[in-house]
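During the no-cost extension, the postdoctoral fellow (Dr. R.K.) reprocessed legacy sequence entries with the updated structure-token encoder. One reprocessed record is reproduced below for audit purposes.
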Amino acid sequence: MFLGQLAVIIVGSAKVGGLGHVWEVASQHGLISGIELDPDPFVRHTFWTLAFGGVFMMLSLYGVNQAQVQRYLSSRTEKAAVL
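Re-encoded structure tokens follow.
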């Protein structure tokens, strides 16, 4: 998968004129951004909205997932469940 992604980046960049040109075009269209710390919940992809959403995503993966809950309940100790 990594090689496929790398191949897409290399071939795509070569077809449009190099990584510098890709970066320049993305920057001109406002697609390059840093870490946004705006606490407004209606702004997409800020640090706070991603952190808040990430908590619920991890909770759904590890807190209520059938396989994880079964592992927790079948272990004798908390240490055994972690292992």
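The CA atoms of residues 25 and 64 lie 43 Å apart. The mean pLDDT is 89. The remaining legacy entries will be reprocessed before the final report is submitted.
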